[in-house]
Amino acid sequence: MKLHRPVAEQIILAIKSIFGATPEGKRYYADKVIERLFKNNRKLGARDRRFIAESTYGIVRWWRLLRTALAHADYSAMPSDLELWQIFGAWLIRQGAELPPWSELRELKPEVIRQAFDRAAREPQVKESVPDWLYELGLRELGDVRWHKCLHSLNQTAPVVLRVNRLKSTPEELREELAREDIDTDLAPDDNGHLPDGLVLRERKNVFSSESFKLGLFEVQDGASQKVAPLLDVKAGHRVIDGCAGAGGKTLHLAALMGNKGKIIAMDVHQVKLDELRRRAARDGVDCAETRLIESAKTIKRLEKSADRVLLDVPCSGLGVVRRNPDAKWKLTPEDLPRLHALQAEILGEYSAMLKPGGKLVYATCSILPSENLAQVEAFLTKQGDAWKLLQVHQLWPGEPARDGFEGYDGFFAAVLERVH
Description:
CATH architecture of the largest domain: 3-Layer(aba) Sandwich
Order of helices and strands: HHHHHHHHHEHEEHEHEHEHEHEHHEHEE
Mean pLDDT: 94
Helix content: 40-55%
Largest sheet: 7 strands, mixed
CATH superfamily of the largest domain: Vaccinia Virus protein VP39
Strand content: 15-25%
Shape: globular
CATH topology of the largest domain: Rossmann fold
Number of domains: 3
Number of strands: 11
Low-confidence stretches: none
């Protein structure tokens, strides 16, 4: 593939926006940067779009390794424009691509850079391209073997997994519909019925522009995320509260599991996310879900002991989904974790009051850190005494096969609790 300079310039602009090397100095999430870039450059062809997205994510993923190989003094410091072009050049070299004859890349010597990669890879935190503090944290919480397996897996490209909207289609029907749109899929491995709605794309494509997506036949949702809603064991007619609903991926899954019969109250502290949830619900044909903004503790108090089921997919470090959001490892700081721990404990302690006695609650994160997961659940149970009991614990580790043998899942944790009285 011949590389055109305007395409490369878009990648440089994207990296600047992600790391804050822009006049306003604000750092944006990588997925939003790519989405905005494509929206502003509608004439870009499919091949250029793929190259821009893959290169941008690849550079972000291997940021420390690339900068170390280039002997940049500090990988965390803001790069100059010339250094940004050098980083892009080092990325091309690592991919085995030929360097274009551009002035910014003239000083790069591919063989020297390749040797620098080999030297840099002797340090595991550089080889896997993570900050020192995060590397040490993983060692403390997970141990050497599991942490290195996770790190290696989190640097792989994530598969695209779809969840069939059972209110409108079936996996077999959707496969046929997508095939007619030149989108080939395979049935996702089924873990004893816990992932019956998953399809995995054989080749990455923009499924959001497909007619099937516009008709609400599916949502993009990783297999690990698809395992959470079924743990609530919802039934048609249940009253369910999704206490940290966000844009509603799990709310919509719950609605499908309930056959769109019953009541789901989708709650969040961000109105913009709830607005997006409403749009998605309309597309998916979901009318059993209502959104409710959490404005104060009174919002929670009014719903005390009102729900048959409560889902708390709490804010977390997101370390289980770094392969999808590689910029998270550069934006997360050591100071963020105590704040997250406090917030998780607060949400579990307060929002659990919305569950009826005899009901089930699922506490979930997309983290792999025990301090965000089982430690939070154990601390909650200790405070509650015999009022609650732990029914199940589920943990998926990136890089380790699940019971179904599939290694393509994100990292996630979920605990199923029952309120006794």
